Amino acid sequence: MTDWPNHAEAWRQWRDAMSSERMHHGWLLAGKAGLGKRDFAEAAARALVAEPGVAQPAGEHPDILTLSYGPKDDKAERAAADGKPFDLARSIRIKQIRAMQKRLITRPTLGSKRAIIIDPADDMEKAAANALLKSLEEPPAGTFFLLVTHRPARLLPTIRSRCRTLRFPVLTDSQLSAMLGEAGLASDPQAIAAAEGSFGAAVRFAKQDLAPIARIVAGLLAVGDSGMTGRGELARLIGPRADRERLQAVLELAQSLTAHAARTAQDPERRMQLVDIHASLVRLAGEAPTANFDASLLPFEIGSLLVTAAPASAAAHG
Fold first, then answer.
1. Which of 66, 112, 68 is nearest to 90 (CA)?
2. How far, rounded to the nearest angstrom, does the alpha carbon of residue 239 sit from its chain's CA centroid?
3. CB 201 within 8 A of CB 171
4. Please, which residues have CB within 8 angstroms of residue 247's CB and are 6 or more apart in sequence?
5. What is the DSSP string of 215-264?
6. Which pLDDT value is given to residue 243?
7. Three-class SS state of 40
8. Model-level pTM greater than 0.90?
9. Which residues contact 192 (CB under 8 A, 6 or more apart)?
10. Between helices 244-264 and 229-238, what is the axis angle to 10°?
11. pLDDT per residue over 175-191, tens digit each?
12. Could you read off the pLDDT of 62-74 as tens digits, one per residue?
């Protein structure tokens, strides 16, 4: 498991809570994606359910239940049951919460405590969130919930109010550089800057070799692309047959660099343009996995959004 230098305060609070007479039953692990919140949840859950004199399994633990994205549909469920590759759903569904709640009727297997990890909790369907709320309102004895959340504001206020929050700070550039080195990945300054404190993002940028793309994106934002040269180079670097993972990594990179440009912009009008572009990139990232996009044209769509904030830029679509 990764050694996370940004977890020290969260561990202090968690251990203090474990040693108290009455530990809170609901916890929000909050922070941007890529900060190791899932790793913390798994390690914290193991520390919680372990009891003196009771042997603990090294692998899957019967008293730790993790809910995340399940199979997309019946066909995907059959493929998963057969051990074949399958498509994941884009949300955590109510039937997953219902199945978890059935487990809560029984006693924990090895000790007196059970931990439920939901990751990411902000991607629960509305019905799933409402169902979970009932368990948070009347938790079974010895049951503790760890909700991993990248965007706490998307959770129901009633869920947030019933949980204690652990906040995970972003990593410094030097920490990211050291962690990339420990992972055997190149420590590129542009990838680190674009990751904005997220090790998960830095890893994706390094593995996808996005440093050259970062330079093109920064140029499109700064000076535009009057002759389509920059957009053409962006398409070449992304590749004509880029898979979904690479396209999502590029979209994430473009969002990050646009957000950074907005934060540092001195001109209010340009700042608002960049905010609008960022919102459009977020929408595009959400639509791209399911919409019928031509993968070869998507880089030009990304580039055309970026140049709209540049001085004397070309029109958005050429």
1. 68
2. 25
3. no
4. 238, 288, 295, 298
5. HHHHHHHHH--TTSHHHHHHHHHH-TT--HHHHHHHHHHHHHHHHHHHHH
6. 84
7. helix
8. no
9. 173, 176, 177, 180, 202
10. 140
11. 999 999 999 998 888 77
12. 999 999 999 988 8
